[in-house]
Amino acid sequence: MHPVPQLEFFDSQEIVDFLPLLKGLDELGDRFRLSMLHWCGHGQRATPLDYWRVHLVRQDGTTIGVCGLYRPPNESLDVFWLGWLGILRPYRRQRIASFILKRMHEEAQALGAKEIRVFTESRNAAVQTFYAKNGYTPMGVAAVFAPGQGCDPNDLVLRIFFL
Would you give the end-to-end CA distance of the chain in angstroms? Predict the structure, then answer.
């Protein structure tokens, strides 16, 4: 098992800081690109979020990933959503994503979260397995548990509870 490398988390709204990720995380799709552009002040979200914070992750001065937390309007104050957990391919399978996820759990709990939810594609078994190994359980489909939140209605909603 690989030791977790030293990672630096930093916040930025400068589009230049996101360029390596926008090019290297194609699998996250257009919603990711649009969301990051909005985060950087280019355009506006159709529905502003109550809370939104994005972290870029660096290793040895190189931006290798992104993660964030958000809370949609009218969501319970103790429920947060994980947004855009992505790691560039050369840095995957080194426990970095699990380390980042743990950091997001700690941040959410410091904000009063009792639950974090996340969307994942219903056909992406590898991502579902990753979240299950990190304590997430399925709620059901987005059409039922997150209607109108800008995701595919067939996406799955997973969650983790904190005491």
Answer: 29
Which residues, 6+ apart, have CB-to-CB distance to 84 below 8 Å? 28, 32, 35, 36, 54, 66, 67, 68
Whole-angstrom distance, CA of residue 58 vs CA of residue 118: 23
In this structure, whether the domain defined by 8-161 belongs to CATH 3.40.630.30 is answered with: yes
Q: What is the pLDDT of residues 27-36, one digit of tens each?
A: 766 777 777 7
pTM of the predicted structure, to 2 decimals: 0.87
- CB-based burial label for 82 (10 Å; 0-12, 13-18, 19+): buried
Residue among 58, 118, 117, 60 nearest 88 (CA): 58
Task: Round to whole Å and give the CA distance between 147 and 126.
Answer: 24
- pLDDT tens profile 67-116: 989 998 888 999 999 988 888 888 988 889 999 999 999 999 999 999 99
pLDDT tens-digit map of 113-127: 999 999 888 888 888
